[in-house]
Amino acid sequence: MTRLLFAGTIFSSAFLLFLVQPLISKQILPWFGGSAAVWATCMVFFQVMLFLGYAYSDWVARHLPPRRQMLLHVILLAVSLITLPIVAASSWKPAGAEDPMVRILLLLFATIGLPYFLLSTTGPLVQTWVTRTLADARVYRYFSLSNLASLIALVCYPFVIEPHAPILLQARAWSVVYGLFALLCAGSALYFASHAGPVSSASAVPDDSGESAAAPKAQAAAPRVRDYLLWISLSALGSWLLVAVTNHITQNIAAIPFLWLLPLTIYLFTFILCFESDRWYSRPVFLLPTAAAMAVCAYGLQDINISVNIKLAVPMYVIGLFFFCMFLHGELSRMRPAPRYLTRFYLMVSLGGALGGIAVGLVAPNVLPAYYELGIGLVVVGLLGVIVLRSRRLVAAAAFCVAVLCGYFLVLQISGDFKDARRIDRSFYGSLRTVDKTYFDASRNVRELYHGAIRHGEQYLTPEMRAEPTTYYGRDSGIGVAIAHTRVPQKKVGLIGLGAGTLAVYGEPGDVYRFYEINPQVIDIAQSEFSFLRDSKAKVDTVLGDARLALEKEPPQNFDVLAVDAFSGDSIPVHLITREAMDVYLRHMHPQGVIAFHVTNKFLLLAPVVQRLAADRGLESVLIEDEGVGTTEHSTDWVLVARDKSVLQKAAIQDVATTIKPIPGLEVWTDDFNNLFDVLK
């Protein structure tokens, strides 16, 4: 029963720890534009709080006697219950121009800070209690158990919890389970205080491997400074590569929903294997495939043919991450100390995880002009391999050669980017790049804007063609038809998503075009690199900030057309395509106005979602598909929604309208209930 009590406490803490991450992230995601960078910033907070929790565990285990440990921890658990339920206050919603990173971090600290901190302390602290109360405790297997619980929570949320429970219910249910965890943890603390043996009795080195005597043993000697630095470095690089690979495959290869789940699963799975038993990581078995994976992945970063091949690139980098993390976590497991030093070991591991996350999540977007952190990480892994494998000179020399090769490919990647690009920018919201593409026929020369792997607009370079609408916004596209055939003159047009500002070309004298854009760098590029905005005959306004939040605060705009153009990029801002969002849009529409949803997407069927939203509010909807033949050469899908049925029955619209094929069982999306799995192609 005692083992079950300790195991249950560790399992429940790790399960809640990883369950709260997507739960709280989903609460605040709509407030900051639905960007994938919100998740990256949350990851930094989680890793830093994990480090603080491990630091607390290390200090308590080394400086306080059992009864004082119990008393302090039980008091903190009781205080944390006062902060429940974990619901983010609406006062944290951004006003528009403030730094989103700082605001997100402060919001998370105020909302889940103390409960998350205490959950973070549980693994290492309870494991020290195990070593002082149970004989022959294979303590490092509890670390593997905690990672298994984290993996289960990670998989359960999108498949089991999110589709069936609203956000408020999720937060309250989590808070109830946290209360049960607090009771388990308090019970473990009380048992420890009553049955703890002296620290010296825990200094023996148990065989955690459960394997033969040939398996590596935990070090009985006290850790040295060199050991601390290696623990930090191995952990930091694992975290670094996790975030870097996630950024690369979701931003530069494929904007597939939930793709971020795969690298995190691989990361946790390698922790589970390496700390469950020594039999899973064998250095001779993993060194060669790890080196090969490093070289192949580094090469792929500078080869455009690999980046655009989703079926090749995604598996390649996911498999590569598995070998990288098996090497890093396997070597980390080989260096684990005696149980009496385990809190210090976990402290260094958490510090490394936090440093790796901070480097990629916070520093890289403000220092690197594009996504170069993965290439840099591969070089550093090779150099770290030289240090870890220094006792085997030939192997260490080979590791150095791999590092040099990865560095060569990194140089090629950077030089290739800057050779073709006019401008490269990086921020919290992603990497932006403008490129001039030239053809034998000079009249076809264009300037393109890319956000990661997604093209967000282009403009002809010849003066006589630069006022021609391009890409997804041609005159035969849904938005082109909507603007041309709504009431005239002096239209008022709202546009969610600026891109290159292409839609401004439709403006006529007396019109007002009002763009809503969350990324200030996009506004700067649209104004400096493209001429759509300044050449427009209409009055053009730009509003900085999340469109839905801005529209919620503004008085009714009386739009004749509102273009919602935010669903073809790196991540889907679901909060812009829900029942609550539709109500916001309708408040700003003229009675005969048209809301145009741009639903062109390689991976999602969004037209049925819009159709269900429209029907839910008694609105009419039609789909306009344009192949772009002879015009923009871009295939586009737009769904037009209107209150007045006659607006969509005009001959010009009906002649090109297509029936939307519904998805059986698809429910109306709301802020609480929306599931991208339902609409995957």
Quickly give the CATH architecture of the largest domain: 3-Layer(aba) Sandwich
Total beta strands:
12
Q: Return the structural class.
A: alpha/beta
- What is the rounded Rg? 28 Å
Cα separation of the termini? 49 Å
Major beta sheet, strand line-up: 7-6-5-8-9-11-10-12
CATH class placement of the largest domain: Alpha Beta
CATH superfamily of the largest domain: Vaccinia Virus protein VP39
Q: What's the story with the biggest beta sheet?
A: 8 strands, mixed
Mean pLDDT, to the nearest integer, reads 86
Figure out the total of helices.
22
CATH fold title of the largest domain: Rossmann fold
Number of domains: 3
Shape: globular
Can you give the helix content as a percent range? 55-70%
Which range does the strand content fall in?
A: 5-15%
What does this structure look like?
- With 681 residues, the chain is of the alpha/beta class.
- It has 3 domains: 1-199, Growth Hormone, Chain: A; 222-336 and 359-428, no CATH class; 469-679, Vaccinia Virus protein VP39 (Rossmann fold, 3-Layer(aba) Sandwich).
- It is built from 22 helices and 12 strands.
- The chain has helices at residues 2-28, 36-63, 66-82, 100-133, 140-161, 167-195, 225-253, 261-276, 283-301, 304-307, 310-334, 342-367, 373-388, 393-420, 478-485, 520-528, 532-535, 547-553, 579-587, 607-616, 645-648, 651-654; strands at residues 421-427, 430-437, 446-451, 454-460, 492-496, 512-517, 539-544, 559-564, 589-598, 620-626, 636-642, 657-658.
- The strands form 2 sheets. Strands 7-6-5-8-9-11-10-12 form an 8-stranded mixed sheet, sandwiched between helices.
- A hairpin with a 2-residue loop joins strand 3 and strand 4 (454-460).
- Helix 1 packs across helix 5 (140-161), helix 2 (36-63) runs antiparallel to helix 12 and helix 9 runs antiparallel to helix 13.
- The radius of gyration is 28 Å and the shape is globular.
